[in-house]
Design brief:
The protein has about 300 residues and is of the alpha+beta class. The protein contains six helices and ten strands; from the N terminus they run αββββββββββααααα. The strands form three sheets. It has a four-stranded antiparallel sheet, with no helix packed on it. A four-stranded mixed sheet has the order 2-10-9-4, with no helix packed on it. It has a two-stranded antiparallel ribbon with strand order 5-6. α2 runs antiparallel to α4.
């Protein structure tokens, strides 16, 4: 029965953690097919100007997924119209990173249009509308580390005429299985310390052997309650610290904090048992020892 209870508790932690960790990752999208543009020309009075809707930005939350994602936004061509020569030539429209990279810091960065990890495509829709489509393949070119990567996509014409800058932000989180493993180890160690502490106290109180004290403690109804509270505490901490942080794992302190809080949570879950005992009128406590009649 003891082994079954442990298996049930661990299964509960894994199940709850998996449900919580299945956050809202980026939804799949695709780039538009390029349209055929009619031939034409622009004079100096009708220079090409590009605008985006106010507040438009590229924001992709990958969660712990590393699958390919595309993010398209529409841009308007004002004054002069778009021409076939604006696309596919070195003297036409070009998209790239405004500061050379989309970066988390000086050591973690993503290049644009120089590898397979991120591509910024300009696709004609009609003579006055084009699509900026950013394609990110996180696992390409050595992969990416968890974190928040920020930068801008700069669109230029003729190689040096800057037309538009669009903010971009990518967020990556470490695998939820990593978080679950850390939480499970911390919960198990915390439970082990608590159970051994309770058994040691009972051994001193009853002046009995270590194994007998341990079996005595495990035979009480308060023991499965302790395991259930441990599962709930572990899930709650995981929910708050992993699911609540879209870039969990970007710092080594994230793992340390998750482990420490899950471990300490087991030490404080006795308070929950005390509440249950009070509400149940002591039903989970050992019966008081029998007293001899005075007569």
């Amino acid at each position: 029965m003891l082994a079954t209870t442990w298996v049930g508790v661990l299964g509960t932690v894994v199940l709850l953690s998996s449900i919580v960790a299945g956050g809202a990752a980026a939804q799949p999208a695709s780039c538009a097919k390029p349209a055929h543009l009619p031939a034409g020309s622009r004079d100096s009075k009708h220079r090409l100007l590009l605008t985006a809707r106010e507040g438009d930005a590229i924001a992709i939350n990958f969660d712990d997924s590393r699958s390919r994602q595309a993010y398209p936004i529409l841009l308007s061509a004002n004054a002069g119209q778009l021409l076939p020569s604006d696309f596919g030539s070195s003297s036409g429209l070009q998209a790239g990173a405004g500061d050379y990279y989309i970066s988390r810091d000086g050591q973690h960065r993503i290049s644009v249009n120089t590898g397979d990890q991120m591509r910024a495509l300009l696709i004609p829709i009609n003579p006055h509308v084009l699509q900026l489509c950013v394609i990110v393949q996180p696992n390409a070119d050595g992969g990416v580390e968890p974190g928040r990567y920020k930068g801008t996509i700069l669109i230029a014409h003729n190689g040096n005429q800057e037309l538009l800058s669009v903010p971009i932000e990518l967020t990556f989180r470490a695998s939820h299985w990593t978080g679950i493993e850390i939480a499970l180890v911390a919960v198990l160690l915390g439970l082990l310390v608590k159970v051994l502490s309770e058994a040691a106290a009972r051994q001193r109180q009853e002046k009995t052997g270590a194994m007998r004290a341990l079996k005595s403690y495990a035979s009480e109804l308060s023991f499965p309650v302790t395991l259930i509270l441990a599962a709930i505490a572990g899930w709650f901490v995981f929910d708050q610290m992993y699911a609540g942080n879209p870039i969990w794992g970007s710092s080594g302190g994230d793992i340390t904090k998750l482990f420490a809080v899950c471990f300490v949570a087991q030490m404080s879950s006795n308070q929950g048992i005390d509440v249950i005992r009070n509400m149940a009128g002591g039903a989970f406590s050992s019966p008081p020892p029998a007293t001899a009649n005075a007569g």
